[in-house]
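Consider the following assembly input.
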Amino acid sequence: MSFLALKNPREASVMAALTVGMVMAPFFFPQLLQQLTMLWLMVVFALTWDMTGGQMGYNSFGNVLFFGIGAYAGVMVQREAGFDYHTGFVVGVLAATVLAGVVAMVLGIGMLGLRGHYFAIGTLGLGIAAGELAGAWDLIGAGSGLTSPLYPADAAHGRSAGDGGQFFYWWMAGLAVVCFWVSRALYRTRFGLALNAIRDDEDKAEALGLPTTSIKIFAWSLSACLLGAAGAIAGNVIGFIDPKDVAFAGATFGVWMVLMAILGGKGTLWGPVLGAVIFHLTQELFWTYLLGWQRVALGLFIISIVVFFPEGILGSLRTRFPALFGVRVEERS
Amino acid sequence: MGTDNSRSASGYGEGDVSAVISTEDVARQAEALGATVSRDAVRALVEGEPLLELSSLVAGYDAMEILHGIDLAVGAGQSLCLVGPNGAGKSTVLHSIFGFTRIFGGEIVIDGETVTALTPAQKLKQAGIAYVLQDNSVFPDMSVEENLLMGGYLKDKPFEAREAAERVFEKYDRLAARRSEKAGVLSGGERRLLEISRALIMEPKVLLVDEPSIGLEPRYIDMVFDILADLQTSDGKTIILVEQNAKKGLAFADLGYVLVSGRVAMVDEGEALLANPEVGRLFLGG
Amino acid sequence: MRSGIYQILMSIWAALLFMGAGIPAAQAKVEGETIYLGAAVSLTGKYSTNGELTRRGYDMAVEKINQNGGVLVNEVPYQLAVVYYDDESTPARGTQLAERLILQDGVRFMLGPYSSGLTKAMAPITERHQVPMVEANGASLSLFQNDYRYLFAVLSTTEQYLTSAVDFMDQQGKAASDVKVAMAFENDPFSQDVRAGVLEALGKLGMQIVVDDKLPPELDDMSSTLTKVKVTQPDLLLISGHARGAALAVRQLDEMQIDVPMVALTHCDAAQIIRKFGARAENILCAAQWASSLTYQDELFGSASDFALAYEAQYDEPPAYQVAESAAAVMIYADAFARANSFDPTAVRDALSATVLETFYGPVTFDAAGKNIAKPMVLMQVQDGAYRVVYPPAAAEAALRYEGKVGEDAQLSYFGVGADLVLNGMMIGAVFALAALGMALVWGVLNIINIAQGEFVMLGGFVALTAVSLGVPLMLTVPLAALVMFCVGWAVYRLVIFRIIERDLFVSLLATFGLSILFQQLANQVFGSDVRTLETGLATLNFAGGALSISAVKLVAFVLAILIGVALWAFLSRSRLGQAIRATAQNARAARILGIDTDKVYAATFGLNAALCGAAGSLVVMAWAVHPYIGLPYTVRSFLIVVVAGVGNVAGVVAAGLGLGAAENVAGFLFGAEMQIAFVFILMVGVLVWRNWRLQRRREYLK
């Protein structure tokens, strides 16, 4: 079990709690199933963003591009490839993963050469352009969007459509877990250090002989693969893929990815997870209780996070209680 | 660990490798030099009334205190050099005089008037204190002439600034020769000249000069100190400078202060400090 | 070990508590004596105007039914009530809230959302949970091709919308194969379905299709499509783009002086084309689900005109058909409950399926798929400032007015058309340049990239609109908008921006992104999502035999934009504050030691930027159009222009702005309107990558 490296008892207990919660939730709160599925999606969003953003310093505003590609790829495979539902779903997810990764590799050659804010705005442009282009492509339904196939019905009960809620929940939760462990493993290796080195001073890292281009492309493609898979699953959860509002929703999912990671504390492992949970909850609360004004409240929330909480929650906690994080602070004499 | 002279680096100093001391050591040994110098000692170096005086100045940034009670006095037409280890607060003294820091306590008096709380603009315009920054501080896309005119931004009437600029051009024909060129293409020495003369447009009484020689080639360093000497003797300017090249600085200035950890540790005439063996060992490279 | 387990247990408990926070008290389908219907409506987002109309329709019917004693089920009277949620005009939200209504709130009877897209997203969910949904605003035929058993629609489906116009054209004497048809449809499920119906009709008759454009959903300019219409000189023009499309079409057809013998639109009354455009709307054909002059009636509301009067008494405007059909949906439920005498969803579903009901909205009978096959689509024509029903013949109040073309018009010169595209593009390019100048200022002085730049432009437009509605003379709107936005910019600086000045650029990106979302949503809440324009009453100038037409107001906007740019340049180079701004931009520390209060400079610069955008926005609303979501493309354009021209280069920025405007217009013409916005974003990415590649090659040499 050494690869799990469960040294920190605090971390271990939190993980245990989450695992238990994740497993029990569908049975205790079946009516919240879709919301919980979306929660795991948010966790995936935040973790994948942080991989290239907080850890590597390449703050992308357009990662939603890969999510959208995954959504379309997955659903297209399910609709057109002629498999039975479950096989089609799995093949769809795989196709989505691969396609998103390939696109990331190809685009990465041009995009990852951009630095700082150019990269951020450039990726923003990509994400939105993708939405426009998807809206013009008839093959994938253009502006009318795509509906995912209905979950197979339980014919014995005479229903016309089955309830895939739990099925998708497990897949999304599973993906979130995979995301988490992959990130965790990655950040503990030299590769993780290399990522941080690129973030802190790319020119020096290059001068030290690190193959920065390959590293950057690899990290971005990895996040893209995970996002693609998330898209394929989410496309089925939502049931209807609209090019601008679901697949390439730059002004919502695209920005939220960044915010969640920052809210929790970018550049850390648990920060994005924490940020995703809090953000999702807050958003749901706004939507329920601030009917009509929820997006205004969201805008204010975003500004407050960025202006007052730039290190995120974990960052602020680390400053206040460094001992909790194993950091020793000596008094200056 | 013997001294291997074949590896001694040639440079501005005369010491060999053994003269190198770590920063922490310098700070510790400098602290051992003595407790804070008394106000009388400070005042004694000035003949007559000081033009600029700091009394127990406590200052810093945000919540952090850097200066823990500085006394300083310099007379009209005198020059004073601040030396000391890194982080001692030398630049902070200049910043505080000009108004860039938070003043927690103490006073700044110029020509008998208390000016502690004045804004930088007021310091420049009313109190006659000008600042010359240590880094590149010209406006690169403006011409030399425009840079000088910017020096007169606070003038009530623009033509006054133009007149002052013309006087500068008369005095320094190196600048006059380049007057319409963009300041960004000037050489290091010319830039420093521009920066200093720009500070003169408002006709200040006191010049605060932060690291005049930093980043300059040797020939320009001498040029800069010549200019400062000329301003002091011909124009009667009072000059307070901070200088890492303590040798040059103390050789130039009338008075010298050694600052350590936000306090004044030693004061004396410039030459005396230059000759002081402890100062020499800690700050002058031998 | 004990403490470890304890920690684990505490964490689990905390997690459960956490999750429990999200559950409100569940509402049963029927509680006491109230039947709850669940409804998703678009209260925010691009459909908010029509979402509101939908809600009003539902409420009116619910109120009326309740007033009349409610619904009798098993001889017990029940009141109706509706549980509303906001789907934000997005399908993802719609599906979530369908699940929420059904699973959390326990609703068993659903009313539909506004728009086919949202209905399409929600139908699988109601179907899966076997909850009937009676919808009134999702006309897409494709909804009924999925074998849903629980979906019912009271409105006529899309394939009927504009086909009657095609039929009319066919009856006008010209041989079908000689008839030229131009069409433009918004790229959304509804309009594309309308298009499918039209294509089928055209195919059967063999008419020529000369223009077939997809319009982007964030539609605010149809001119590249209409230029194609101008060039091809069709007999019939069909446009469907919800209310925005209708408003823009009427306005721009007039502006560009395009004369098509027959023009048919959808959503005219929601767009209020008569009220807004007066004589320019004459003779336009409008597809409608319902008109208040029709002779339908029922026992609840009386006649169609009774309903209209009741609505007008409450809301001070005549009802669009969306209101009527929404009300009808509720009436269908009331009728079904009474017939089913049960609250079992399946029983109600069966009762719904067997509905045969006369309403003020029209007759309702559902076929096996759930669509209403009893009510025909109505075609109205604007005659003498009022809508007159001209189709179906049985309900027609007036005859169709039609004047065919006399002979063939002369062929327009390519040069003329090209010049038209380029020059018109440059007109708006000048406005882009203004916004770009502002962005360059803020970038150069504060080192911040303001993502909310486009929102400042948008707000400027709305300030101008508000000012005019309060009686401010038109000529003062530009300076007034600039002044108001200056104050807004100053305030934003003092509240938010000053905190992020010294931080890295990414933080400023994110913070200004937050601001942009905030302003967008505020504008949507306060002003609604409609496309708004300001009528200046200025004429259109024609050149080159009609090929080149420039509306005078665009020309004025162009001139003003250039003048403002020149004034800005003079201000920066001559005035004292301008000097201070330039100095701060070049070296802020140096500026400080010379006595410049850089904080004030930053505030003034940001305010100045906002003022520039405000002026730009007021020009946009006069010469083009604004709505709350025009922001991001403007921001990206500004960024693109500054990147290409360089931060300090005023003349370069202006030139690049003009060039971008022209390029965009030409691209829209060549590649289709829906690609116009994509073009800008892709161009930006391309420029960035290309620039970077060139810089990298230089870095290679240095290595």
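Chain C has three domains: 24-155+297-365, 160-288+378-395, 414-702. Ask yourself how this observation constrains the way the partners meet.
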